[in-house]
Amino acid sequence: MRSYTVVPGHQGITGNEAADSLADAGAKSDIVDPGPTAQPTISGIGSIARSLAHNVTSGWWRKNEPTLSGGYRKWQLDYALKEPMELKLSRPTLHRLLALRSRHGDFEAYHKRFKHEDAETHCPCGKAKTPEHLVFCEISVRRFHSCR
Fold it and tell me: What does DSSP assign to residue 130?
């Protein structure tokens, strides 16, 4: 229950006590004004829709994330409705990032799993092509820094 403090400057004003009494009765009442101000706004409906969509997709993600491969889960990605920042990357960089995350790319383990006999499974530097190697290989690092 709310308590009200009477401000001395409002005392003695004709109708003030009656207005206070009516406001207090209205606040305690279950009656809602059915007028246009009681109707939802377009902005309010949009907020509710975004909140519902977020709750549904977040729940779906929490339920399905454990079924993803360990290699994918280690990235600890969140499910978002907004466009991810990664889409601002150049296509070649985005391609490599997605290959890294999904582990579906020009990697030794991928080629072995699908029995690609003629695949080149080693980097020109001599090491096996792995998702991690793509990030740390001196050739990739040099190429990345030259493009900046």
Answer: -
